[in-house]
Design goal:
With about 400 residues, the chain is of the alpha/beta class. It is built from 15 helices and eleven strands.
Length: about 400
């Protein structure tokens, strides 16, 4: 079941299966997931914690327990819940068996729908009438569709679907939520939904693109679209290898040209610029560029979205995915053949040096993806391949991954 709308439901009887099973099933049929809370305190705690995707409405009962205390249900608890949920600025729906006729509903609404909450209370519904809860679900959907954040999520749904916390186990869900929120933040940036403080730190989004691309290509590996460990997407030489640059004998036709351009641009700006930058160095680098806090960063984020759209299309379209996988067999075989051509270099140990003229790190004739503190370290080379970067391959004909020893 795919849930589009996530709703906090507070009712002291919400776990009464006999009473509410059909209610919950009807909600699910309309794409609404109800988060049950027996007390107002639990509902408020859940709202504070938040959800991914975000909550879009609150359902309250008129009478319930206020804070989990074993006390008789009474109207004051509703007032407590109503006041405490004001800050969340979500549409409010009251679902109660205490307000059976229209006069009672009207009187109730007139009493509470005032001040800052004016127009936030959408309607009052009678528990004893099935048609009323079906109408409430329809009204929840209508109200949710007007929320700015849900509108944005709907607009970028094809991209955001790349990360789905609902499909993960409990142990994996938190990491998937972090990835989803990272992607949502970049969507907000594109949409202009960022405050001045975040806009002034535009380079931060460049660093987040670097993080995002690593997650995206992990997702490709996870789904069998990339071989384990063959390409490191934040590494410019690996990206050049993947897209077929600097290698006259080979071109990877499985990757669309616009995606190749986006990959090379994003990685050169946010990944191993100079063949090895930390995330902090990446941010400083972007800030040093003309317009780096605005124009450069925006270009990087937009390019990243092209990459994400391409990957989601591979995952969503069976025919496209099968064609890609078939063609990637040839790609992988080509690069693995190059690796097999230099088996004598695998396992070689050496000291990392820095070439100031070319601004690269190397061990003997093998170029590596290094960083400042790595200079002078002892490493073991592994996965050695021919260096395909025309700028460096004459001096350093091999490229290798490594392990510090």
């Amino acid at each position: 079941m795919e849930y589009k709308y996530h709703v906090v439901w507070e009712d002291d009887e919400c776990n009464d299966a006999e009473k509410f099973d059909s209610f919950i099933e009807d909600a699910a049929e309309k794409g609404i997931k109800l988060y049950k809370c027996e007390t107002a305190g639990k509902a408020i705690e859940l709202l504070k914690k938040g959800n991914t995707p975000p909550f879009c409405a609150i359902i309250l009962d008129v009478v319930s327990k206020a804070n989990g205390e074993d006390v008789a249900a009474k109207r004051e608890s509703f007032n407590y819940a109503y006041r405490k949920t004001e800050r969340f600025d979500l549409p409010m729906f009251v679902y109660s068996g205490q307000l059976g006729d229209e006069d009672k509903k009207k009187k109730f609404k007139d009493e509470i729908n005032v001040g800052n909450r004016e127009n936030q209370l959408v309607e009052v519904y009678n528990k004893n009438n099935v048609n009323e809860h079906l109408k409430m679900f329809d009204d929840i959907i209508k109200a949710a569709e007007k929320l700015p954040e849900l509108c944005l999520i709907k607009r970028y749904n094809d991209i955001l679907g790349l990360f789905d916390p609902e499909k993960k186990t409990e142990g994996e869900k938190e990491k998937e939520i972090q990835k989803w929120n990272l992607l949502l933040g970049l969507c907000k940036y594109i949409d202009g939904k960022v405050d001045e403080e975040h806009e002034s730190r535009g380079s931060m989004y460049g660093v987040e693109v670097r993080n995002l691309l690593e997650h995206v290509f992990d997702k490709m590996t996870e789904n069998g679209l990339l071989p384990e460990g063959l390409f490191e997407i934040s590494n410019l030489p690996d990206v050049s290898k993947f897209i077929g640059n600097n290698e006259p004998a080979f071109s990877n036709e499985t990757v669309p040209f616009c995606v190749k351009c986006a990959l090379r641009f994003c990685t050169s700006m946010t990944g191993s610029v100079g063949h090895g930058k930390t995330r902090e160095e990446t941010q400083v680098y972007l800030d040093s560029k003309d317009g780096g806090k605005k124009y450069m960063t925006r270009a990087i984020v937009l390019a990243a979205m092209d990459i994400v759209r391409w990957v989601t299309s591979l995952l969503d379209d069976t025919r496209l995915r099968e064609k890609y996988i078939a063609e990637m067999v040839v790609v992988n075989a080509y690069w693995e053949s190059l690796s097999e051509a230099f088996p004598e270099y695998d396992g070689v140990e050496g000291v990392v040096e820095y070439d100031e003229e070319l601004s690269v790190w190397h061990v003997k004739k093998c170029m590596i993806r290094g960083y400042n503190s790595l200079t002078g370290s002892h490493v073991e080379l592994k996965g050695v391949t021919r260096n395909t970067d025309k700028k460096y391959k004459e001096v350093y004909p091999y490229f290798a991954k490594f392990r510090k020893i």
